Amino acid sequence: MKLAFQHIKKRFGDLNVVEEFSREVDSGELVALVGPSGCGKSTLLHIAAGLEKPSAGTMLAGGKPVRGPDPERTLMFQENALYPWMTLVQNVALALEFQKVDKKQAEAQAREWLEKVNLKSFEDYYPHQVSGGMRQRAALARAFITRPKALLLDEPFGALDALTRMTLQDALRQLIREAGPTVLLVTHDVDEALFLADRILVFSKRPATVLKEFSLSQHEKTHDLSEFADMRREILGLLGIHAKHEQDAEPVSETQESLEGVAV
Ligand SMILES: Nc1ncnc2c1ncn2[C@@H]1O[C@H](COP(=O)(O)OP(=O)(O)OP(=O)(O)O)[C@@H](O)[C@H]1O
């Protein structure tokens, strides 16, 4: 599903959040939105999800104006919203039950998706009985089980430690490869954007405008992002973070902290 932001502007009262944003995200493409805290990235995601209306301009999904939320466009947050009183399998199955799929069939499919995200023996655990990374794996299974045409990911792994985050990024890439949704990813983590994205949009501080756009080669990426060192340095520079020397470039977790520090 192609997403098209056409001359989008957004104000909240006196606060000018998005100046004017026009971009298309092709079917099956993954575009990462990177920028200072509070610049308006999540607002753009909410407009794509149909949770916020633009003050001006048009949001199109699959060529049609977005008029509200739709299961075809699934939003996933940093804080997994699993229900604590339901097991992982019940949580994942619920997404299908909302779509009127029979409970037994929904649970059978939920078990398959939990297996895909390496949670096979944990299906019947409750969220508090598993780690934060495992809860986000379950949240990924729940996001994918309805086979949305567009996935809108808002800092999906922001609460996880760097190592767990990398394993979740691997799981996400695998799921995307299988299911092929269009993905918009908001992240503070430049390395996450480099690893996952086909394209990265770097935003200015509020009101959000695109400072620069980067296209990444499609070939197989690994977490060794050394071939993207120049791009990484340029992105960090645009965000006002300067790595002294290449060998001093911040590791993932510090990058995250530094970016948080650019809050406006
Ligand atoms: N519903 C709302 N009502 C009023 N102001 C809002 C609303 N949603 C967002 N804002 C404001 O708009 C600005 C941009 O918020 P947004 O969440 O889009 O930024 P962001 O770039 O995603 O930030 P972060 O990276 O910290 O999540 C902020 O100042 C925020 O307080």
From TrEMBL:
Keywords: ATP-binding, Cell membrane, Membrane, Nucleotide-binding, Transport
Any matching Pfam family: ABC_tran
Domain annotation ABC transporter: ranges: 3-230
UniProt GO molecular function: ATP binding; ATP hydrolysis activity
PANTHER family listed in its UniProt record: ALIPHATIC SULFONATES IMPORT ATP-BINDING PROTEIN SSUB (PTHR42788:SF13), TAURINE IMPORT ATP-BINDING PROTEIN-RELATED (PTHR42788)
Family: Belongs to the ABC transporter superfamily.
Protein name: NitT/TauT family transport system ATP-binding protein
Originating organism: Pusillimonas noertemannii
Lineage: Bacteria, Pseudomonadati, Pseudomonadota, Betaproteobacteria, Burkholderiales
